[in-house]
């Protein structure tokens, strides 16, 4: 596995692969990798000849009061895991490499509509940061495919929309959420939780599951379903941020005529913000 930090070296290797007629799949990450990330790499290996994984903690997608400085960085362990999977390149640029003029002078990408509400409402500017860095990384890696986890469902829809709107020639592949045996969605932020809190956190998965079962049974009293879910989270000791039922592809508020849903949820357990979702077809 090659470990590359500079743009020139990355582009040189990508160019050589292209000249050899090889396809490229890309997995952008912020590091602190777990089995969920590794499932993206495994998918990438299944669809392309070569796999590039980036590790970059992107300051543009963090708000003023968020955990940028404390975000877990485990580069040595991450590289070892990626090497064992047969990753071809791990790209680990510095902030100065990605934003040489600083964030204040950086051009940005803003995706309207789908970026609004949910995590976009709770974290203003977050998806602008995500869209900007992913666009830049796409320009650097020039992949045929890019794999993203469905756990960050709104992020996935933002990237799909951006890629389509800007005519970027990359096929976006959503990979199902990896979960612990308890149902808890795997996340780098789970590392902030104690063993007892991890048990409590399963209430989010349970609330999603109950709501999904109700939808499948034909219950479209969305207001009652959301209220019940929030109450169950509060009773378990979580503080709901949002719990919403949306049209799956547009993320617009669900209507009685819809049959393809995504239930989107976020809640705080102490200072840790957990997100999860569940797709439902009826």
Descriptive notes:
The structure is a single chain. The protein is an alpha/beta fold and about 280 residues long. It has 2 domains: about 1-175, HUPs (Rossmann fold), CATH 3.40.50.620; about 190-275, Pantoate-beta-alanine ligase, C-terminal domain (Pantoate--beta-alanine Ligase, Chain: A,domain 2, 2-Layer Sandwich), CATH 3.30.1300.10. The chain contains 9 helices and 9 strands. The strands form 2 sheets. It has a 6-stranded parallel beta sheet, with helices on both faces. The protein starts with a strand and ends with a strand. The mean pLDDT is about 95.
Structure summary:
The protein is an alpha/beta fold. Helices cover 39% and strands 20% of the residues. The chain has nine helices and nine strands.
